[in-house]
Design a protein that fits this description.
Length: about 400
């Protein structure tokens, strides 16, 4: 947010000021959805009881959070701790009787699949299935790249199977689905692809700043059946949430942070039982949308696949590295200077992206923002030259 803007209240304030209201007193809302999705980022691998899909085995948040240690902290890319939020929720009247079960975590390098799911029994008689976003494993990042050219990635298929099974274990409960980042994309995909009889039991599907879908996915009868149940929330400066297509309406939410850090759900603005809405996204974010859309549209599905494969192989040294921590310990520029076909593919795609950035900067200048545009144009050119040098090519 701008320095002159007031700091907005967040999910922590929501729990302090409204945590004494039961779901019978105040119905489940979009902020409740985000809280459960944030909790899903925590590492529950040590708690075998959570793996049961039998609702009779479900345990309260308090029973688990009291046993958690720093090794159980969130697995996402955020620098923030999420255990304090789970503790605050467990201590509240509103979430104190919410029970959790059905924990699943999958890392499958052969299938290029990363999936983390957790389900909650809400005291209003509903089942909430939540999906975590991308973690620090490189297989999760490869799956994200695959979204650009595949109609369905393994995590989307696995998430659909997960919800179908969890709902079968709770036949008397209505259903909600949610997720943050890639988890939001999974929630929306699941809503489209669960059986029709289960779609009839679906109340809401929440996509919290997750990528959209290719048009071939949204231009379907399955999508149209659940369009009015899908709720999409995008921060003003979102990048992640605007990837691919968002043909549905989405709400622009305020944040206490700037730029890409607005993706962090702990920064989202809350007022009462709703996120604080903004009229539109930031100008820089809108410009980024145009560049990314034009760039993506300029690539054929085959080019997207080749680029994704080549870039991933460079990052992982042909599959030798498996986490972002391992990548950070290596010399990225040296890997990007690899010889052969991969170098040519990555170089050409990045060249086209930089060309689109330059064109957008010139367009911005024509609209009266010349000084800012020239600065950004110069930055883009410097980045391009550095990239060319790293790739062992001369401009």
């Amino acid at each position: 947010m701008d320095k002159n803007e007031k700091t907005v209240e967040t999910v922590f304030d929501y729990l302090r000021w409204r945590g004494d209201l039961t779901f019978a007193q105040d119905a489940f809302n979009e902020v409740d959805n985000l809280i459960l999705c944030i909790i899903t980022y925590l590492n529950f691998r040590r708690f075998d009881i959570l793996c049961s899909r039998n609702p009779n085995d479900a345990v309260t948040l308090g029973e688990i959070v009291s046993r958690m240690t720093p090794e159980d902290e969130q697995q996402g890319l955020s620098p923030n701790d999420y255990i304090p939020l789970m503790q605050a929720a467990a201590d509240s009247v509103r979430f104190g009787s919410v029970r959790m079960f059905g924990y699943e975590t999958v890392r499958d390098e052969e299938r290029e699949m990363q999936l983390d799911a957790l389900s909650f029994l809400v005291p209003d008689g509903t089942l909430f299935c939540a999906f975590m976003g991308t973690d620090r494993s490189l297989v999760g990042w490869k799956e994200n790249l695959n979204l650009s050219f595949m109609d369905a990635v393994p995590a989307q298929v696995g998430a659909t199977e997960y919800v179908t099974d969890m709902a079968a274990h709770c036949p008397d409960r209505l259903l909600r689905i949610g997720g943050h980042s890639k988890g939001g994309n999974l929630a929306a995909y699941v809503a489209m692809h669960i059986p029709e009889e289960l779609q009839a039991k679906l109340l809401d599907a929440y996509n919290n700043d997750g990528p959209g879908f290719r048009k071939s996915v949204t231009d379907t009868e399955e999508y149209r059946r659940i369009a009015n149940k899908l709720h999409t929330y995008i921060p003003a400066a979102s990048i992640v949430g605007m990837l691919l297509e968002h043909t549905e309406d989405y709400a622009v939410v305020a944040s206490n942070s700037r730029a890409v850090m607005q993706h962090e759900p702990l920064t989202w603005g809350v007022l009462g039982s709703r996120f604080i809405r903004l009229e539109s996204r930031s100008e820089l974010a809108k410009m980024s949308d145009d560049v990314l859309r034009e760039w993506t549209a300029s690539l054929t599905p085959q080019e997207r696949e080749e680029f994704s494969t080549a870039l991933f192989d460079m990052f992982t040294q042909g599959g030798k590295l498996r986490s972002l921590e391992e990548v950070q310990q290596k010399d990225l520029l040296r890997r990007l200077a690899a010889d052969g076909k991969q170098k040519g593919i990555v170089s050409e795609v990045l060249r086209r992206l930089i060309a689109d950035v330059k064109e957008e900067m010139l367009h911005t200048a024509e609209e009266g923002l010349k000084e800012t545009a020239e600065t950004l144009k110069e930055t883009a050119e410097n980045l391009y030259q550095a990239g060319q040098k790293a790739l062992g090519k001369r401009k």
